[in-house]
């Protein structure tokens, strides 16, 4: 690889990092948007509405871009159904019902394990290189995320007789997101990130609405009672937090791998705290700043070694 080629690769990677950071900022804002919806509709109905809007946004994007919706083959249908089930349907059921037993801060602490789970699974299943620097970076990210979450709510580990149920459900979120991240590798290469995200969200949305209908939670009066802020929250969750963010995340996986993309998830609690301070008046503490610094350092360590390795080959 020449110096010029390496420079172009480094620049391309910087753009990917910026895109993934933006995706994480969007996902951090979904916690705030979700608060505006909490009292309006049931969790399952809210998830169904969110991904209905995401489906509409993705289909409109394909229409305006004059990109035909791909026709998957039988193998791809099975893979897309797997992604739709674990990444959309299963993840949201575990997340929303898990929050009935534990608070959001405790749930965030468990979800912060995502980078470690994705990295370990990628190493075991796909032989993705897990260097010491990556391991240290992942550990530092988890430590930073934990510090941010615990400092935000020191009582999050308080005893609760039913907390173990919520913990198991939120661990289901980690499992679902890990499968969604790792099982997309082949599809993002053959169908591309836009088609993969579109089909997985369409199938996951169908599963959510069928479950919502079976449980009798589809209510017109709940929709008519929503105010402007709640509709704006739904639009944010569906269009930005689902459609656009999922495409950006999958594109990152396609370009730099699941482990290096997954580590950016550690930014979620940090951006949620920042949005909470800006929009909800929540107070920032020194521990939050330290935790944020650890998260950024961990992401740097997890992504820097590959660039350095490439430069060494030139010399």
Question: What can you see in these coordinates?
Answer:
- By secondary structure, the protein is mostly helical.
- The chain has one domain (3-314).
- 81% of the residues lie in helices and 0% in strands.
- The chain has 14 helices and no strands.
- It has helices at 3-37, 43-64, 74-98, 104-111, 114-126, 132-152, 163-182, 185-190, 193-214, 220-224, 228-256, 258-262, 267-280, 286-314.
- Helix 1 (3-37) runs antiparallel to helix 11 (228-256) and helix 5 crosses helix 7.
- The longest helix has 35 residues, at 3-37.
- The radius of gyration is 20 Å and the shape is globular.
- The N and C termini lie close together (10 Å).
What's the topology here?
Elements (H helix, E strand, L loop, with lengths): L2 H35 L5 H22 L9 H25 L5 H8 L2 H13 L5 H21 L10 H20 L2 H6 L2 H22 L5 H5 L3 H29 L1 H5 L4 H14 L5 H29 L1
Helix pairs in contact: 1-11, 1-13, 2-3, 2-9, 2-11, 3-7, 3-9, 4-6, 4-7, 5-7, 6-13, 6-14, 9-11
Pick out its properties:
globular, disordered C terminus, 315 residues, 81% helix, mainly alpha
Question: In a few lines, what is going on in this structure?
Answer:
With 315 residues, this protein is mainly α.
Q: Which residue ranges are poorly predicted, with pLDDT under 50 across at least 5 consecutive positions? A: 305-315
* Major sheet attributes: none
Rg, nearest Å: 20 Å
Q: How does the overall form come out from the CA principal axes? A: globular
* Overall tally of structural domains: 1
Strand residue content: under 5%
- State the separation between the terminal residues, measured CA to CA: 10 Å
Q: How much helix is in the residues? A: over 70%
Count of DSSP helices? 14
What is the succession of H and E elements? HHHHHHHHHHHHHH
Total count of strands: 0
